[in-house]
Amino acid sequence: MKSAALKSTSLVVALLTAGAIGGAGVTAFNAMHATATATAPSATVSQAAAGAVGMTATLPDFPQITERYGPAVVNISVTGTTKVSDQSPLMQGDEDDDALSNDPFFEFFRRFQQGQGRGRSQQEVPTHGQGSGFIVSSDGLILTNAHVVKGAKEVTVKLTDRREYRAKVLGADPKTDVAVLRINAKNLPVVTLGKTSDLKVGEWVLAIGSPFGFENTVTAGVVSAKGRSLPDDSAVPFIQTDVAVNPGNSGGPLFNARGEVVGINSQIYSHSGGYQGVSFAIPIDVAVRIKNQIVATGKAEHARLGVAVQEVNQAFADSFKLDKPEGALVSTVEKAARLTRRACSPVT
User: Fold this and answer.
1) Residue 313 has pLDDT above 90, yes or no
2) How many domains does the structure of the chain reveal?
3) Same domain, 211 and 273
4) Is residue 114 situated within a structural domain?
5) Residue ranges of the alpha helices (H) in the chain?
6) pLDDT-derived band of residue 319, with 50, 70 and 90 as boundaries?
7) Which residues does the annotation mark as catalytic?
8) Is residue 222 within 8 Å of 207, Cβ to Cβ?
């Protein structure tokens, strides 16, 4: 993993799969590529500072949540292949090396090698990866991230009791990064699904997954924000948390304080590609909607409005003489949508 200086202004959105599948890398293993109702009891703890005024704080019972729902969290191993060009090590070298870049014989030889390589067939190199997932039905339906199983030829699901199953990918939706797997098993432990709409900023959350292949690792934190948009062309309103997640956590569940799954851990924001205090989860409401479509039809469909919308900032508010920045601005209309824009009228 190549680290960037902390003073860099650019940040990297890193997928959390501990492996590389389909175009994510050319090595055999890439550690960077790295998706009923019941409640868990809470523990009431008196705070020393607040004890004088009779105040108490209610903390979630994380051990109880882990014991009850940990068995429904699975480790996912994938194998596949990726195509790489048949190039000599010389062509992979640093062309800016001062000792060679000014050497005319080196430049001639480099171009000769490139010319000789034209038209060569690409070779397939085996790739391996790991991720996490969780069981949502006792007959073997599993949710994970789409990037965990991207390009996979074989998917293996391992339970906490060490049983292993070959999984079938029912479908994957790159737009939302949600995938649905099926294993041939019965009477499996399942998680309880919650509602993202009930989740509040500042609320305790817990993640279970397989960071770096360490199965059923538990980490906890709080919800930092809701409805986050990321610069990845995704329409997902991500849940931002400070829960420690790392490569291999992808596809694992994010639990609320009641033991309900409210999200699927998916990405981190980082200078280095490792956890730096900012992680993102796909809301479970979005994941369930995609899951239902995939189970019914094998794919997910997304409606398009045909317009580009941007946030109204202070500059726009001043330009349009608004009292304060609010609402949204339709900046462009796609060609296919222009035929119907006459039917649109402003709302006052």
Assistant:
1) no
2) 3
3) yes
4) yes
5) 62-69, 98-101, 104-117, 284-297, 314-319
6) confident
7) 147, 177, 250
8) no
